[in-house]
Amino acid sequence: MVLVFGGTTEGMIVAELFDQIGQAYFYSTKSDVHQQIKGKRIFGAMNQEALNTFCEENNIRLIIDAAHPFAKELHHNIGCVAAARQIEVIRYERQYSSFASPLLRYFDSYEEMNNALLNSTYENILALTGVQTIERFKSVGESKRLYFRILDTALSREKAKASGIPSHYIIPMKPEGDKDGLVALSKELHAELLMSKESGESGFFEAKVQAACQLNIPLWVVRRPALPQFKQVANNPKGFLQLFYELKKSALKEEGVLRRGFTTGTCVAACAKACCIALMEGAFPAWVEVVLPGGEKVRLVIFSQELSEKSAACVVVKDAGDDADVTHAKEIGCELSISDIVGIHFQRGKGVGEVTLPGLQVQVGEPAINPVPRKMITDMLSQMIEEYRLAHGFAVKPFVPEGEELAKQTFNSRVGVLGGISILGTSGIVEPYSNKAFLESIRQQVRVAFESTCGEVVLTSGKRSENRLKETFSHLPSVAFIHFGNMVGETLKLSAKEGIDKINMALMLGKAVKLAEGHMDTYSKKVVFNPAFIANLAMQAGYAEEIVEQIKNQKLANAITDIIPFSEEEPFYKQVAELCHQNCLKLLPKECRFTFYLQVGELGAVKVS
Q1: Residue 548 per-residue DSSP state
Q2: Which of these, 537, 468, 539, lies nearest to 505 by C-alpha position?
Q3: Of the spans 224-233, 236-245, 422-431, which averages the highest pLDDT?
Q4: Residue 41 forms beta bridges with which residues?
Q5: C-alpha distances in angstroms, 98 versus 226, 239, 530?
Q6: Which 3 state secondary structure label does DSSP give 549?
Q7: What pairs with residue 304 in β-bridges?
């Protein structure tokens, strides 16, 4: 669970982000400030002991310290409890700017400023330090005309009244970033001096400096106290969300539970939708909802970048769930431009790769945007064109700011995708495949399937393979279809161990040639396409030397279909399917009935029983 310390602008930013992404959290403030949020509200100050007890009782595993910078004791307590309980902390710090003016005078404490005021000749003073500081300056108010501008809320007015200060010295106002209101108030009160905390940008400190300069009166400032050394610090919404997603994989990990994420395709689709809204309505939405290929709706937070009459650009922060994805917590974006050409057209933006070799699902020379994301974006924008009754088309340019560097951590270059990452996705969802926990989730699915199907399952590497077998196994319920990712061998063994006596398995050609070679885990980081092995198979099957040599020079299994046209009776594909079948049988008991399907794209399949 997450605990947020708020009561500030920064706290509300965190709460709104969590509300938008559906993250559960506690929101702690010293007083009930009646803020409308979805998190569970808790009120009242907590000392170290109380905070430690709360964290233990509520299984707090991540703390967001977005409290006021002057809440020195609270920051200290958070640091101590977090260290003792090994809880991760993100500090959401407000932004500060440096100002140089002879009118500014800084103090290290309220006490120091109080003494300086008592010894000064200033009589009319306007305090912008907040209702909480009235008690600290009571002695000044007894000898000078000290006015306090406070928040115009019932809680602030009650606190001011309780302090005993005469009501005509209390000025409830909404704080503004514009200096004009402050200048007008200062003139009305004949203020000779302004007082403030070093409140940062969200505390409108710059407006206070500007007002003092325009009035040519001093501005006395209490410096913000030194904070503990936080390891994780954010000072803007996008940076915070990136930090949160990075820590979520470890700090909020649930034993035996794997969290799904969003594909790069889903991220680009969300950005394209937000850009279209911005172009049509003049402003970006805070978030958008995207409909995935399976009908599921997901919500992503939007961070705007540029908006003009003809184009718009924005980014989202990708949440890849518990998958080992290089783009997790990274920016994925899209620029959308109005085009005179009717329809939806795709272009390559910064950090998106270009396809340079045949065999992929995208033609050579095209940006590496796979068919499903293209369809998602095209369908969505086509619908919006109809809704807004537009007569033009759109140019869609996905971009990934760190894409070129991130691509170096992938096998993109080996398959001929150069210059960046690919925009991927078949379901719009990233399904996590992390060994031990993933195998346990497979085991649970197998057990449910055993109870529901009298011991028959259909094992596929993913949704694409599953869809091609739905009609063949229409007699089976959905629970009988189990995704194993790349873990062929382990999935077969545990299926047999759990009592499954009829196993059907399907693999696409790219993974099947790895299995045919004897690799029972087809994960691309462990094993890659071996053209020498495939060429040897072709030679054994009696293909001409010219074909064998062509295969040796390929980098993708899918390119083989251009050399050896597919049919269910073609010797090469039958041989691959037979080898896969044989290698799988070695892991299964003799009484287990096993059928293997070699799927070759949209062309068909070879069945071996």
Answers
A1: H
A2: 468
A3: 236-245
A4: 27
A5: 16, 22, 60
A6: helix
A7: 314
Q: Which two tokens stand for residue 190?
A: 């004949």
Q: Say how many Å lie between the first and final Cα of the chain, rounded.
A: 49
Q: Which residue, chain included where needed, has tokens 């034993």?
A: 255
pLDDT tens-place string over residues 353-373: 998 877 777 888 999 999 999
User: Has residue 153 got a pLDDT over 70?
Assistant: yes
pTM equals 0.71
488 or 361, higher pLDDT:
488
Read off the pLDDT of each residue in 201-226 and give the average, rounded to a whole number.
Answer: 91
| Distance of alpha carbon 126 from alpha carbon 460, whole angstroms | 71
DSSP secondary-structure letter at 131?
G
Q: Give CA–CA dist 53/422, Å, rounded.
A: 47
| Number of C-beta neighbours around residue 385 at 10 A | 19
Would you place residue 33 in the very low, low, confident or very high pLDDT band (cuts 50, 70, 90)?
A: low
Taking residue 564's Cβ as centre, other Cβ atoms within 10 Å add up to: 18
β 297-301/287-291 pair status:
antiparallel
What is the residue whose two structure tokens read 């759109």?
394
* Cα–chain center distance at 74: 29
Which has the closest alpha carbon to 458: 508, 490, 449? 449
Q: 381-410: per-residue pLDDT in tens? A: 999 999 999 989 999 999 999 999 999 998
Quote the longest CA-to-CA distance of the chain: 106
* Residue 52 binned pLDDT confidence (cut-offs 50, 70, 90): very high
Are 542 and 586 within 8 A, CB to CB?
no
What whole-number distance in Å separates Cα of residue 172 and Cα of residue 157? 7
pLDDT digits (tens, 9 = 90+) for 285-313: 999 999 998 888 999 999 999 999 999 99
Tokens found for residue 460 = 């596929």
Predicted confidence (pLDDT) per residue in 165-174, tens digit: 898 999 998 7
Report angle CA 434, 435, 441 to the nearest 5 degrees.
Answer: 85
* Six-digit token string for 117: 């005021």
Tell me phi and psi for residue 403, to 5 degrees.
-60, -40
Q: Which of 348, 371, 350 is nearest to 360 (CA)?
A: 371
Helix (H, G, I), strand (E, B) or coil at 493: helix
Which of 547, 578, 542, 552 is CA-nearest to residue 564?
A: 547
